[in-house]
Write a sequence for this structure.
């Protein structure tokens, strides 16, 4: 509000809109909350609790009772499953504007997978009770949750198909091609950056670190890629694509 000669004049009348808080800006970009009116978004903003996590810190573990959902404000998180032997399968890596754990909040079950911070991250926590209250008042939010969950189900089916029907070499080729879509084109080829370690890459495609090292070295020996630490140049994109097709 601003004071004028005749008293108090609202910012809206003067054409000045209040600056959104960081939480409001983040929540407004989340697919399941898109389209909410300002008062509806304020309902969430007032109840969303910022939480900070360091790189590698567990946010929640598979099987724990679900207390609420999270929205990534900054940083990245990974969703993963673990075997009894400690081997991990990464299901997704999500960045700012992504919501996490909508399904257990929605159906009342436990967390179906674990979640950890990839780097220093800030997440907004919305309790199960507050989210359910929002869904009861605004059924369109529940429909958007179904669309998000449906898209994740399709992605999980794709992961199952890769694990079931392709070789480790084929899965690495597929992973490199996905990175290439956002890579930098240079005279030598397409430049990409691999995950921070071969162990992390192994977790993402469902194998072990030793097979990652062996297959990357073979790709380099065959002239398909050039390796320099975590920096990779895809020197022959067509050969890599042919490798993927032959693995199907």
């Amino acid at each position: 509000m601003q004071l004028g000669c005749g008293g108090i004049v609202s910012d809206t009348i003067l054409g000045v809109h209040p600056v959104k808080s960081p939480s409001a800006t983040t929540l407004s970009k989340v697919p399941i909350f898109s389209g909410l009116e300002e008062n509806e978004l304020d309902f969430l903003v007032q109840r969303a609790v910022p939480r900070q996590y360091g790189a590698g810190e567990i946010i929640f573990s598979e099987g724990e009772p679900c207390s609420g959902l999270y929205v990534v404000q900054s940083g990245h998180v990974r969703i993963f499953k673990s075997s009894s032997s400690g081997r991990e399968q990464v299901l997704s890596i999500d960045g700012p504007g992504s919501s996490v754990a909508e399904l257990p909040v929605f159906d009342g079950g436990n967390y179906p997978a674990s979640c950890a911070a990839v780097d220093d991250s800030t997440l907004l926590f919305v309790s199960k009770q507050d989210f359910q209250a929002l869904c009861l008042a605004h059924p369109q939010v529940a429909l958007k949750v179904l669309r998000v969950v449906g898209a994740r189900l399709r992605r999980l089916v794709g992961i199952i198909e890769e694990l079931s029907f392709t070789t480790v070499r084929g899965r690495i080729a597929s992973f490199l091609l996905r990175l290439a879509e956002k890579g930098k084109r240079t005279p030598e080829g397409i430049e990409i950056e691999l995950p921070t370690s071969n162990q992390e890459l192994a977790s993402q495609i469902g194998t072990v670190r030793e097979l990652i090292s062996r297959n990357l070295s073979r790709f380099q020996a065959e002239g398909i890629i050039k390796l320099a630490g975590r920096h990779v140049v895809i020197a022959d994109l067509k050969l890599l694509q042919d490798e993927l097709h032959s693995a199907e």
User: Anything to note?
Assistant: Residues 1-10, 12-17 have pLDDT under 50 and may be disordered. The longest strand covers residues 68-74. The radius of gyration is 22 Å. The chain has nine helices and 14 strands.
